[in-house]
């Protein structure tokens, strides 16, 4: 598993007050995919299209949880564990917010060739409900 030998496809759906308020996001990046100490790691750089240019993202999973860490222009670590509430600070150039993540579902299907991760969660910002989100990450060898 060599650096930049994988295509990372991320699809996200943000739902606010109703299903009519959905925001769909999709992006692709070349990145790194490794397996180490019983965990998979996906690494890629954010682009201008995501509004987080200058930020590196690492996704870590052992199958029971997904951790998403961003460093650079945006700094945060979000932890997704099924049926659990986790909190994190989300630091941006515009200020810091407290995020609450209640994870409804985590599914992983990864092997040495790539695979898929999907997560469904509710999010609150500074203790105010912000919506329900899902994201799907697909990893495939170039």
What can be said about the biggest beta sheet? 10 strands, antiparallel
Structural class: mainly beta
**Number of DSSP strands?**
10
Gyration radius, rounded: 15 Å
SSE arrangement, N to C: EEEEEEEEEE
CATH architecture: Beta Barrel
Average pLDDT:
90
Quaternary structure state of the chains depicted:
single chain
CATH superfamily: Calycin beta-barrel core domain
CATH topology: Lipocalin
Order of strands in the sheet with most strands: 6-5-4-3-2-1-10-9-8-7
Shape: globular
Distance between the termini: 11 Å
Outline the low-pLDDT stretches. Answer: none
Beta-strand content: over 45%
Determine and state the CATH class.
Answer: Mainly Beta
How many distinct domains? 1
What does this protein look like?
It is built from no helices and 10 strands. It has 142 residues and is mainly beta. It has one domain: Lipocalin (Beta Barrel), CATH 2.40.128.20. A 10-stranded antiparallel beta sheet has the order 6-5-4-3-2-1-10-9-8-7, with no helix packed on it. The protein is globular, with a radius of gyration of 15 Å. The model has no long low-confidence stretch (mean pLDDT 90).
């Amino acid at each position: 598993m060599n650096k930049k030998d994988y295509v990372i496809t991320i699809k996200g759906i943000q739902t606010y007050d109703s299903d009519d308020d959905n925001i769909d996001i999709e992006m692709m990046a070349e990145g790194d995919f490794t397996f180490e100490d019983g965990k998979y790691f996906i690494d890629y750089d954010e682009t201008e299209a995501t509004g987080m240019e200058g930020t590196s993202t690492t996704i870590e999973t052992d199958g029971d949880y997904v951790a998403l860490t961003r460093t650079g222009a945006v700094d945060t670590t979000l932890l997704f564990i099924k049926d659990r509430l986790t909190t994190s600070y989300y630091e941006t150039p515009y200020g810091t917010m407290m995020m609450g993540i209640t994870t409804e579902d985590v599914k992983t299907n990864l092997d040495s060739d790539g695979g898929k991760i999907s997560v469904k969660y509710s999010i609150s910002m500074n203790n105010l409900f912000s919506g329900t989100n899902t994201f799907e990450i697909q990893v495939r060898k170039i």
